[in-house]
Amino acid sequence: MTTSSALDALNFDNSFVRELPADAVAANQRRQVRGACFSRVQPSAVSAPKLIGWSSEVAALLGIDREQVGDEALAQIFAGNRLAGPMEPYAACYGGHQFGNWAGQLGDGRAITLGEVVNADAQRWEMQLKGAGPTPYSRTADGRAVLRSSVREFLCSEAMFHLGVPTTRALSLVLTGDLVVRDMFYDGHPAPEPGAIVCRVAPSFLRFGSFEIFASRGELDVLRTLADYTISHHFAELGPPGPAAYVAWFDEVCRRTAVMVAHWMRVGFVHGVMNTDNMSVLGLTIDYGPYGWLEDFNPGWTPNTTDASHRRYRFGNQPQIAHWNLAQLGNALYDLVGEVEPLQAALATYVTTYEQQWREMIAAKLGLLALQADDQPLVDELMDVLQLVETDMTIFYRKLAELDVDAAEQLDDRQLLEPLLEAYYAPDELAAHMPRVAGWLRRYAARLKADGRTKASRLAAMNAVNPKYVPRNYLAQLAIDASEKGDHGVLSELHEVLKRPYDEQPSKEHLAGKRPDWARSRPGCSMLSCSS
Ligand code: AMP
Ligand code: MG
Asked: Which residues surround ligand 2, an ion (CB under 5 A)?
């Protein structure tokens, strides 16, 4: 491995490896790692790295100048072929509850952190390659990632950021030039696919499972050291580490998680694998795998075929699952806190914060100034109305802003519904339900009138929370299909459009439409597996 000076000038401050206990074994072999938060490991070289995705906003956060470094050097560095001098690569140790069961050690099986950069605004950003080769935590897998999953992570994490959802970011997407074999549906049909690496960026990638692993092994010193580190570097406002700060920190994790999940419910995001190893202690959406975007408003939907039978991680179950996951983190912190009541109080904070966030969110989506106590039946009826026939959630809310509130009493059902027709997948089936939908719209219009807001002010407020552009499953798939054939134009077009998800972009209407029929049952568009 050669080193490059291209990024040497960045202000690296590798606090994780400096302050936390390291794995004493140097060999990069798959094993149980005891008493350590990480293992030092080098990325494995790839044959022909090519930069195909770049987020200039994330580069600016880090202080990387694309022109100055040059694409060739960036591709080498963000494929893991070259390191900048101050980089100290490592893979983190963590565990997790997967699908409700304790799974023991998991860890960064294919993620390798390069280092932490502190930028001019004193923000700390960890740079992590996903798919850069095996680590001691790779278990039976290869440490690599395929292009399709890398395109999905790159696009979606940036789209989520611009949608205002707390998330990890993506700096770069690099094709490796190597093939990776995957059995996409675990059905005995492994096939080679192009490999790729995303460089993701976040203040930290610490997860609930980062703490659970040490509690499960009774390694309380490591647990305490890690909690102290987390508070000092990422929650300094909570004061010096100690039992009171551990509780305040857990309370804050509960609060942030509630805010994050409410955002998911607002934009129609289904994470797909809410295992505790995929839950960030910073309250960020993390680990984009078989996630999906709700097209038809169906709270029972999950994109993840691995979860098809129990649908534990279905859209409507996400708030409950987050609570369950927080309870596992609370259990892990019990030995540090020594009392159960404050941890239970923090879990209760999750519930009240989520309820409050949800109320504010639904009021905003509906263009109401605030949700009143007697608005509940109106909201409940909306949830039912959205499920009468296949209704596109994103288009429905976006078009709802165009409702002619003043004319609602004079218009007949069809005229009233006119602006919303685009949201329906099977307009024929709507006919039978028209009176009920129109009835709801009239009640809603009357309720809006009571707020006395102007149409322009309501429209602007609604359009700021109801996106026009989201990374629909089939759009990501179109970008993947094109990229697999060497055309990365679709990917960059989507990446650009999704930077302004709330703006009307007249030349991009083709990216705001309903899922086309061909995508209804196509793998990648409606069904995904963990195999990536
Ligand atoms: P995930 O379901 O993506 O959250 O992954 C669960 C665990 O499997 C984590 O420890 C990952 O690092 C590991 N893992 C997933 N895919 C791979 C891979 N291709 N190679 C090595 N480890 C992997
Ligand atoms: Mg994961």
From this structure: 278, 287
Measured distance CA(257)–CA(131) in Å, rounded: 27
What separation in Å is there between the alpha carbon of 279 and the centre of ligand 2? 8
**DSSP letter string over 454-472?**
-HHHHHHHHHTTS-S----
Nearest CA to ligand 1 atom 10: 106
> CB–CB of 47/60 below 8 Å?
no
Compute the distance from residue 332 Cα to the ligand 2 centre, in Å.
Answer: 19
The radius of gyration of the chain's CA atoms, rounded to the nearest angstrom, is 24
Q: Is 109 in the pocket of ligand 1 (CB under 6 A)?
A: yes
Ligand 1 centre to CA of 109 (Å) is 5
- What are the structure tokens assigned to 218, written together? 């009774």
CB-CB contact of 66 with 81 (8 Å): no
Q: What are the boundaries of each domain within the chain?
A: 2-208, 237-366, 373-452
What is the per-residue pLDDT across 313-344, written as a single tens digit (0 to 9) for each?
A: 999 999 999 999 999 999 999 999 999 999 99
Instruction: Return the best residue to mutate from 31, 32, 113, 138 for the ligand 1 pocket (most ligand atoms within 8 A of CB).
Output: 138
Contact 465, 364 (CB under 8 A): yes
Ligand nearest to the CA of 530: 1
Q: For 164, which DSSP code?
A: T
115 three-class SS: strand
For residue range 383-422, what is the model confidence (pLDDT) as tens digits?
999 999 999 999 999 999 999 999 999 999 999 999 999 9
Per the CB < 8 A criterion, the answer to whether 369 and 451 are in contact is: yes
137 lines ligand 1 (CB under 6 A): yes
Task: Look up the pTM and report it.
Answer: 0.98
